[in-house]
């Protein structure tokens, strides 16, 4: 549908939410959706109930969540709905607490989530055209919905469950204008048994609404300010439809190296009041943000550089990353209570936090020792991409033995995605991002073959915009001056799947060096397969002893960039450039007695990890909404 004056009648059928005179009706009474976003995949399942109860205490009547395809089907044909991935349990739990549920199944979700929710095995198919009516893509979505929808249908309100609405795609008008694709998705949801309200969500501009709305399907908007302007635009286009802000950006996410984005509590509460004054419904994005555990944080691209998203997804939300009740919570709660005339139950106290402590780091093995002995070796003429390796996230170690001429040569890497530590004969010579790799770095040579190794890190797959689905690894070639380097051996390192053996530094063929004697992180580490090198990178561990497990905030002073595990679960990436300086450790990850913290440092390891008593998310900058 296009045109500012177009109107549409919205078919709701037997759905719990019907539309009458431009508003919602539920159970025969006027109804307003007061929702908040909370993603089950960003909250430890043992904390789902606590966080949902806090949404109830905020005064919300609904919770909405995306469904991340790649969280459930990391490998083609191997869907997983157990434990943390038990979507049905999360939805049922929300219903037990009296919350309605809105499900946002995508298949594209953005959400600052790796690859926008798409599995890497899908986006890596040659010629794949995501988010379009491309037949191969539709076939994959069809199979995924065959798996997903039967789990949602019985949980709809029509069957006594809490699901009252389902979102169609996600902000599609910011991406494309394939109306056939959107129509197919709508038909697929209905054919799959979705009988509750279906709606689209797009930015509040003509361009975005033109590309993302569907005739006969409720059109909503996503924004952070200017509620009256958004309401007027939607009502002009869709006379007789309720005004809904499907995402009210009351906070914002953070990229590595940028400030910590905040939204003033009074400003956020003021926009909530503005929407309610317009007779609108809303969903707070985020009500509770949670954490990008493991390697699931995504990335943006501003046209010049990659912008990886950090591990914390606190998003300056009313309910903080550790469940703390904030001033924003209190102000929004007051606005909602005034509008509804109902006072919600009080929130429970903020969960306790472990006291401050300093834990010495004990070195286990050097970086090259660890990565050279892990994973299966793949041989190829040219360096393979992560997709060709069947690797969705983590690291890949590329190794070749080119002859470097006397006087040296310029080493360049075309299509590096995203960052490489370069070693020559076991010695670190450079750390390169994509731009630096294309410009090149000069390496020395004596007219003989050298061992050239590039440890490449995927810093998060792009989740928004035209570069969605871009590959990782080395997508072009590696050159010495004008000559291509060929005959590669590559090891895929899926860090979030590493087990006890890898985290103990016991890959096949390697051992701890006898040089590790003083217990400091600067020890010399050697390998049976490489010459001795002095390098402060590598694998190390610390022991945390607790009587009663509680939440913790972990800091890594002195360490530069790497990954941290707690009792074998990959907490996420860390990076000294921030903005976040602490990393949230949920209490359910800890146990009474000894707990093991493991660090894989890519550059320079500090001597200790610290526990701090509050989150330190970095210098703040007010979020400013833009549409471009």
Q: Can you describe this structure?
A:
- The chain is of the alpha+beta class and 628 residues long.
- 20% of the residues lie in helices and 29% in strands.
- The chain has three domains: 17-340, Alpha-Beta Barrel (TIM Barrel); 354-374 and 498-612, Sandwich (Jelly Rolls); 378-497, Galactose-binding domain-like (Jelly Rolls).
- The protein has an eight-stranded parallel β-barrel with strand order 4-5-6-7-8-9-10-12, surrounded by five helices. A six-stranded antiparallel β-sheet has the order 17-30-18-26-22-23.
- Helix 9 packs parallel to helix 10.
- Mean pLDDT is 93; it is low at 1-12 and 508-533.
- The two termini are 21 Å apart.
Brief characterization of the structure:
20% of the residues lie in helices and 29% in strands.
Task: Give the number of domains.
Answer: 3
Shape: globular
Low-confidence stretches: 1-12, 508-533
Instruction: Please identify the top-level CATH class of the largest domain.
Output: Alpha Beta
Topology, number of strands? 40
What is the CATH H-level superfamily of the largest domain? Glycosidases
Structural class: alpha+beta
Largest sheet strand order: 4-5-6-7-8-9-10-12
Average pLDDT works out at 93
Largest sheet: 8 strands, parallel, barrel
Sheet-strand content, in percent, reads 25-35%
Distance, first to last CA: 21 Å
Per the CATH scheme, the topology name of the largest domain is: TIM Barrel
DSSP helix fraction? 10-25%
Overall radius of gyration: 26 Å
Number of helices: 14
Q: Under the CATH scheme, which architecture of the largest domain would be assigned?
A: Alpha-Beta Barrel
